[in-house]
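=== How it folds ===
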Amino acid sequence: MLSLYKEFYNNTGKPHMFKMKDKNMIEYADVFPLIYLKHVFGRNHAIFACWMMDGMNEASI
């Protein structure tokens, strides 16, 4: 899933926008989009999409 997300930035011409903090650690701003992708392509994505949107709203306050 991480490679798909990274490829998204490459295809939009903004590969510099995706940065890994460490070998196995992503930036905080990339957490929710990756969770969303994982569950869209997995099971029960409607439940997790609602949960994720709630988390994003709280983080933006």
